[in-house]
Write a structure and sequence with these properties.
about 120 residues; alpha+beta; Bit1; 5-stranded mixed sheet; 5 strands
Length: about 120
């Protein structure tokens, strides 16, 4: 089991802001998995196995939306992160997407082609 966090590199963010957006994606995916009984078993296994995560990058909003759409097509826990604009970014800036926790092979079908951040 793993979770993939995909962040945009075409949006200028400090390292701290990027880390916060990635954290939002991870927490939001866990909350999604808690709310939906289809994913609760995956979440429990992922938690027991040590919460494996990988952080990946895309170069555009279009690429990020493709990742989100593919994850939703496969029925995976997914959370798109849109910034509130309280600090560095304009309100409504889409920054990241979380995928999982889910079986490695399903997450890889969505994100396996992406490079590490």
């Amino acid at each position: 089991m793993k979770m993939a966090i995909v962040v945009r590199t075409d949006v200028e963010m400090s390292k701290g802001k990027l880390a916060a957006q990635a954290a939002h994606a991870a927490v939001s995916c866990v909350m999604e998995a808690l709310r939906d009984p289809r994913w609760r078993g995956w979440l429990d296994v992922w938690l027991a196995e040590g919460q494996k995560k990988v952080v990946l990058r895309v170069r555009s909003l279009d690429e990020l939306r493709e990742v989100e759409a593919r994850a939703r097509q496969l029925g995976l826990p997914t959370s798109l992160i849109v910034d509130a604009g309280l600090t560095q970014l304009e309100p409504g800036t889409t920054t990241a997407v979380g995928v999982g926790p889910a079986p490695d092979d399903l997450v890889d079908r969505v994100t396996g082609h992406l490079k590490l951040l």
